[in-house]
Amino acid sequence: MTRRSCAIYAVGVICSTLLIVGIGLVVAQVFRTVMHNRLKKEIVLVEGSRVFESWKRPPPPVYMEFFFFNITNVEAVLTGAKPQVTQVGPYTYREYRYKDNVSMVENGTKVSAYNTKSFVFLRDKSVGDPTEDNITTVNIPAWAVMNKLKGNFWKASMVSVWMNSIGAGFFTTRSVNELLWGYEDPLLARLSVISPDVDKIFGLMVNKNGTNDGEFVFHTGEENYLDYGRVVTWKGQSALTFWTTNQSNIINGSDGSAFHPLIDKNERIYIFTPDLCRTIYMEFEKDVEVRGIPAYRFTPPRSVLASKEENPDNEGFCVSPQECLGTGLLKVSPCRKGAPVVASFPHFYLADEKYVAAVEGLSPERVHHQTFLDLNPTTGVIVRANKRAQVNILIGRVGGFPVFTNETIMPVMFLNESVEIDEASAGRVHKLLLIVTVVSNFPLIIVALGAIMLAVFIILLYRAHREKTHSEDETSYSPVSGKEKEDPQNGTYIGMTEKVDGQA
């Protein structure tokens, strides 16, 4: 066997080995499994892990935008006319958030923390000055007191006299700053004299600047990657007590700041939000891309805030059979000290049309009013998010008070809490995804090398076959003599056998 033949056989053995091994690894997904197991071990909430510091202090900037509904026909509303509103905003704040008092508990399998937030006003991203711009809206403290006294005619009549004496009407005009961060309400101030538990300061965001929502305990994800960031308890409770069924009181999912890696399109993303006093869920909507990072967009479906008729699972969110609102609304008075506060998506997006039609000036649009979450499915990292929610007040007839006969859900304000991954964080995610892609696809590289070697093997076989054929063609004719003779006159002389005369 020649050296060339040995080389050809060696190339054949190598290419067949590479193809067999590569295809076997692709089918078994060995490298992908190894990489996924590595992600599950590294994306955990423990000191020194890849994500722990960014979980405690998220680097991307978070912005909070506030939009108010200014009522333009108060006098007409008092006589029964349809409310007319105009949207004013945004008033934008930079939101600084971090986990405070972080400590490992239960032998390091869980972590305790407080979600602390603070806000700084951004004039260049706002429509005006919140200290100067005034908004005419529902007098929420007055309606809260009236709702609290519902059914007690004598106390309601006394408070009605107080309201008239101090000029506290059903609507009020206050600055944006007062409505957000608090002001001393005259009715609450009078009530606080006889009831010390009544806070005389009211504001939609009062006591929420530089404060927290209470202690959270989270799963670290070490025992099961699907539990990464999942809330175990809030304020020491593993379930809520606001609602009428155990299912409605479940605390499930994360707090919205962390999600497990290797997310599937078919799964539901659960988020517990203290602002709504409940757990909500999101479902996959579409594939998106943010700063070159692939992501799945999850959004709350209509069923989250559907009526009990549309979604029987929501019956537990009815405060009582008589206080069960339609689709798109959630009355959160059980966790708002009895105030008639109703939560919804902005402009009653995904709500029954009757709520939109009851207030002139509303126009729900998905692009502006949808809540969504864009998650990279490999790492679970949030690459973009918009949390949008609206605060409404239920107004109508209250015994002892000379007010409206028709019940109306009056929009007061909606917020848009948004975040998008910054360049530095996006770079780190890109690097991690590149490593995951290369390692996971390493068997394909082996298959590609095998295919290249197969091509080389075929070329070598073809050339060897061709050379062998050419050699056989050259040796198929044998000359009569070892060398040709030259005729000095006529060129080449070809010798021929002399003819023998038979008669000689």
From TrEMBL:
The chain crosses the membrane at residues 7-31, 432-462. One of its GO terms (cellular component) is lysosome. Pfam families: CD36. Coiled coil: none annotated. Its main location: membrane. Keywords: Glycoprotein, Membrane, Transmembrane, Transmembrane helix. GO terms for biological process: protein targeting to lysosome; receptor-mediated endocytosis. It is found in: Membrane. Signal peptide: none annotated. Belongs to the CD36 family. This is Scavenger receptor class B, member 2a.
